[in-house]
Amino acid sequence: MELSSHTETPSETSPDSGALSGTDERQAVRLWLRLLGCTHRLEQALGQRLRRGFGTSLARFDYLAQLQHYPDGLRMKTLSRRLMVTGGNITGLTDQLLADGFVTREVDAKDRRSHIVRITPLGLATFECMAVAHRQWVGSLLAGVPEGDRRLLHHLLGGLAQSLDNLPAE
Amino acid sequence: MELSSHTETPSETSPDSGALSGTDERQAVRLWLRLLGCTHRLEQALGQRLRRGFGTSLARFDYLAQLQHYPDGLRMKTLSRRLMVTGGNITGLTDQLLADGFVTREVDAKDRRSHIVRITPLGLATFECMAVAHRQWVGSLLAGVPEGDRRLLHHLLGGLAQSLDNLPAE
DNA sequence: TATTGTTATACTCTATAACTATA
DNA sequence: TATAGTTATAGAGTATAACAATA
Fold first, then answer.
1. pLDDT given for residue B5 in this prediction
2. Nearest Cα to A148, choosing from B156, B89, B133, B118?
């Protein structure tokens, strides 16, 4: 194609270490800025609706969304990894949700350092209510993108996510 | 195709108001979660590097990135709109950058309510130094995605951004 | 009256580091 | 020694509302 005015083979520049040409770096930045812009706008819109509609936050919503898939509960350390957040924050979020009666926290019998957090029936019911609204909000926010494009985006972002998994672990 | 088990024509459900079928809503949520995950991971990686390498934040970096394109400066209100942040925050960010000597702030002669913020030579030099590093970081973080996929992503996200522009203004 | 920006306040999310208790 | 979680602290980002100056 006509794209390749600058396509020295990557293997020449760097076998596998992941350096791009200057041109490609600039293109990568443009992609990143667009990714960031879209995400921030959606995040603000959803965060605002979540706050106004349910008095909650995206972080708490995501927390419950994780927990909801595990009726037997999750260890806080696992949640920390899943939500990509350090341990101290999980303690704080857990305290809030505990106060709301949305989760329980108990010591793991097998490893008494660990605590298991479980979602309560009230938490589950509340989450499901929020999830319905959330689903409709997301649907209406993304309705302007054709179905095929959404599907393609999902696929391509899957590739990005995977390539982020395989990074040299900083 | 096999996708269409649930494809009532959108015009039936809603002519233009943007409601999706339940199936499409769920697919939209999956897309949104993937978008959010990728962005957060990149944002954390870049934010961390920016903090450790330059003692600054993404917000300040973005602020300078905007300003850098306008040697004649920008009004704070304009920055507020561009950075999608409320006015009070712009005041705070401006104060910080002012203290660093990276920007100047003066009253607009034509509208004395307004203030014009300009980037200083020091601010510009500093920004350009950070921008080089930033570009390389982004390049290496996205290097695992094939060039064609990056290009396609950029294109599709442009469509998303545009469709977000055309939303019913919440 | 409406707009620009400032100030003050508060809340959420986050990281870090020191700490306890278990392993 | 290493790990799980807590606590305390700090800082970034944000929203809101009251306010001053100007339009």
1. 38
2. B156
